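Q: My labmate handed me this sequence with no annotations at all. I'd like to see what the chain might look like in three dimensions before we decide whether it's worth expressing. Could you predict it?
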Amino acid sequence: MRQTFVVSYDISCPKRLRRVYRTMRGWGDHIQLSVFRCELNPRELVELRMRLNEVIHNGEDQVLFVDVGPVEGRGNTSIRAIGKVYVPPERRAIVV
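A: Here is what I predict for the chain of 96 residues:
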């Protein structure tokens, strides 16, 4: 079952910050500075955490994973905004 996660990071080194951003780009939707919305199954969550752990400095940097629920349920509607409206990304199949 896929879960929706909000992943937020605070990285102290600009070089590592760019590497974390590039890593995260492949796993979710960039919704704000240093914040991504990711739909992950348990295997993907472990793999993402492993890849990020290879990039960050554990004594200086922080990555937070907030589980907001199943993709089909609350995970799709749990992000609320004030000001500019948050629009969840449209999911569609891409045939190559």
